[in-house]
Design a protein that fits this description.
About 30% of the residues lie in helices and about 25% in strands. It contains twelve helices and 16 strands. The chain has helices at about 5-20, 60-65, 90-100, 115-125, 135-140, 145-150, 180-190, 200-205, 240, 260-265, 285-295, 305-315, and strands at about 30-35, 45-50, 75, 100-105, 130, 155-165, 165-170, 195-200, 225-230, 250-255, 270-275, 300-305, 320-325, 335, 350-360, 365-370. Strand 4 (about 100-105), helix 4 (about 115-125) and strand 5 form a beta-alpha-beta unit. The longest helix has 15 residues, at about 5-20.
Length: about 375
């Protein structure tokens, strides 16, 4: 039976796992804590989290740091230890060889190569196993990995920044800055935790963004930049194209197109990804998301524009919504955060469940998960 102390230790492991978000795809972000003693005399002897690129795994990192102190310890792991031989030996076997006597796991691994086999391996070795401790929190943290395994696509998180009345720019197109510095810094942290970031071609052309993480010390955590640009309208002189040799730039585009223009993008270091036409006569975004899943992207952050976000909403591809709101009113002649969704009745409107509300100076961030 799990105790309050078990939950406390698992919470620490989840905090460690969070360090890997945006830096470990296609692997899950996992945390592991090795503890000697009970809640009255407990001592953490080893900590680990999935390292950049997905290896080493959290368990082997914690064991390495603990050394001989791992023997007789309890291991708190946010995801079931792997049981298969990949690029590294099974983590379940590493825990057995380290002499761990108890393993507390938050979440079963849905990967069919694992899915209970890791826990079974531990139990057969005589190790006491406790499951499902803070399972919901662990599932939310690794929703991208889980979504890729179950649906073959990344978790899609939409980030919007608007006035209280849902406007992203004035009638003249002026938009800088709707939100304040604290909100913008939070958005950059979200970029650092994403594997890739997606915008539409209109946003790329009008704003000419770099889409990098500009927080001190996290510049190396900038995600892959992706532009949905069916007709390859993005200027070759844009900041995105000019920096493609430094930070990867992928472009979703329709098959065919001008051969010379396609070559010019490729020569600049851009990766072109052909996406077929969907039912709406535009690029099939469901297919685009499947392509990202095949390429190992587990966490996709979408920053606009309004038509791109609405197309993802209509296709049922949005899993999370992070909405920054500034205490300002722009009015009906401003640019809306969302284009039309084709909703006929209120019951047909996409529904979301509120996860948290953060105050960021004068601004607020409301985070929601899509209600399926």
């Amino acid at each position: 039976m799990a105790t309050a102390f078990d939950e406390q230790m698992m919470q620490i492991a989840l905090g460690l796992a969070e360090r890997g978000l945006g830096d470990v795809a296609p692997n899950p972000a996992v945390g592991c804590v090795l503890v000697q003693g009970d809640d009255e005399s407990a001592q953490i002897v080893g900590r680990g989290w999935t390292q950049p690129g997905g290896r080493p795994h959290a368990e082997t990192e914690a064991i390495r740091r603990a050394g001989e102190a791992a023997r007789g310890a309890t291991a708190y792991v946010t995801l079931e230890p792997c049981a298969h031989h990949g690029k590294t030996p099974p983590c379940a076997q590493a825990l057995i060889e380290a002499g761990v006597t108890r393993v507390v796991s938050a979440l079963r691994d849905p990967d069919p190569r694992v899915s209970g086999a890791g826990l079974e391996m531990l139990q057969k070795a005589g190790i006491d196993v406790e499951e499902n401790v803070l399972e919901e929190e662990a599932a939310r943290l690794n929703e991208g990995f889980l979504r890729c395994i179950t649906d073959g696509r990344p978790m899609v998180s939409v980030k919007l920044a608007s006035s209280l009345d849902g406007r992203t720019a004035t009638h003249s197109g002026h938009s800088q800055w709707i939100t304040g510095e604290r909100a913008r810094n939070r958005a950059h942290l979200m970029r650092a935790r994403a594997d890739a970031i997606l915008i539409g071609s209109a946003t790329a052309i009008v704003d000419d963004p770099e889409l990098t993480c500009r927080l001190t010390g996290l510049a190396g955590r900038s995600p892959i930049r992706i532009v949905a640009d069916g007709r390859l309208r993005l200027p070759l002189t844009s900041k995105l194209v000019r920096t493609a040799q430094d930070v990867p730039l992928w472009i979703f585009t329709l098959p065919g197109g001008d051969v010379a223009r396609r070559k010019a993008f490729v020569d600049c270091g851009v990766t072109l990804i052909d996406v077929p036409v969907g039912d709406e006569g535009t690029m099939d975004m469901a297919k685009a998301m499947s392509i990202l899943g095949e390429r190992g992207i587990t966490r996709l952050m979408v920053e606009g524009g309004s038509r791109l976000v609405s197309s993802l909403m209509r296709a049922g591809l949005v899993d999370r919504l992070d909405w920054f709101q500034a205490p300002k009113l722009i009015g009906g002649d401003g640019y809306p955060a969302l284009a039309g969704l084709g909703v006929d009745t209120v019951d047909d409107a996409p529904g979301f469940e509120l996860l948290e509300v953060l105050s960021l100076g004068e601004d607020t961030l409301q985070s929601y998960s899509f209600r399926r």
